[in-house]
Design a protein that fits this description.
CATH topology: UDP-N-acetylmuramoyl-L-alanine:D-glutamate ligase
Radius of gyration: 18 Å
Shape: globular
Strand content: 15-25%
Number of helices: 10
Helix content: 25-40%
Length: 299
């Protein structure tokens, strides 16, 4: 059965050295969710400018539900300058005071919150007080059975101990990478001995159902209660890493919602993340129009 899954937060344009690509973690997440066979919904805000109009057109063209994307008359559509090193690893310079910094709690979003199977959110879109309050209001308004996924995504200095702690309290699943985990443990004033013990501390402290730690090209660790599973990842020629973590999250959430085991969640999430890393941009077009063809080549 098709699930209704929303990404709430930023829509933006990634300004890479040789091209401009539509992005933003919630948007990337919703796109891959749609490719996986569920209904990917974007809850965000764009400016009433040429970039905003083009973002809406592009998202609709890619099959995303854009009915819940707000528009802003005063603020521009978000952009981020992306630099890639020799290995395709991305570094970001994110524009301030843009449309998604002014997310509004509306009747439309209240109705959306009541009708979802899962919602994914991050720390970046909470950098402004207004958007942070709106996102937290949204998360508190959804039914208890809706799965709340906190994909940490630390960017520049746009996070704090308060934002991270409040987000984890509201989440059922937390996904972060192996560079973010020590930072979070340090902010929590807890020693970081190893990934497994730190993940278990997060589960116990925040009453989480699942913690996922990604390791770039070295796979991932999933921890649920006392059970844990590792995956070595898939070796692919990396075009760029923009959006690969968001794709991983989408694959993970899709399998979680459909009752998969930890091993299958790990396998599928790593497959989807590797595919996006092997392609240019965060939202590549599947080969021959079907995601399974692209994933089969990775396998």
């Amino acid at each position: 059965m098709k699930k209704k899954v929303a990404g709430i937060g930023e829509v933006l344009w990634d300004l890479l050295p040789e091209r401009t690509c539509l992005g933003g973690a919630p948007t990337n997440f919703a796109y891959i969710t749609t490719l996986m066979g569920d209904q990917g919904i974007v809850a965000s805000r764009v400016g009433e400018d040429s970039r905003g109009i083009e973002a809406l057109r592009r998202m609709e063209e890619m099959g995303l539900d854009i009915d819940h994307v707000q528009t802003d008359q005063k603020r521009p559509t978000g952009t981020v300058k992306v630099d890639l090193d020799g290995n395709g690893i991305a570094r970001f310079e994110i524009t301030n005071s843009v449309a998604w910094d002014a997310l509004e709690w509306t009747l439309d979003w209240q109705h959306l919150a009541a009708d979802l199977d899962a919602v994914c959110f991050g720390s970046l879109a909470q950098r402004s007080r207004g958007s942070r309050e709106t996102i937290q209001h949204f998360l508190r308004a959804i039914p208890p059975e809706t799965v709340k996924v906190f994909d940490v995504n630390l960017r520049q200095s746009f996070y704090s101990d308060e934002i991270l702690s409040e987000s984890m309290k509201l989440a059922d699943i937390v996904k972060l990478n192996d560079e973010e985990l020590p930072i979070i443990m340090k902010l929590s004033k807890v020693p970081h001995k190893d990934e497994l013990s730190s993940a278990q501390w997060l589960i116990n402290h925040y009453d989480l159902k699942l913690v996922c730690i990604t390791r770039g090209g070295r796979g991932s660790l999933l921890v649920r209660g006392d059970d844990s599973r590792e995956h070595p990842g898939f070796r692919v020629p990396v075009a760029d890493t923009v959006g690969s973590g968001d794709a991983f999250t989408a694959g993970l959430v899709h399998e979680y919602l459909h009752g998969a085991s930890l091993d299958l969640m790990n396998e599928v999430a790593n497959l989807v993340g590797a595919w996006v890393a092997s392609e240019v941009g965060a939202m590549p077009t599947p080969k021959r129009g079907a995601l399974e063809h692209s994933l089969a080549e990775i396998r």
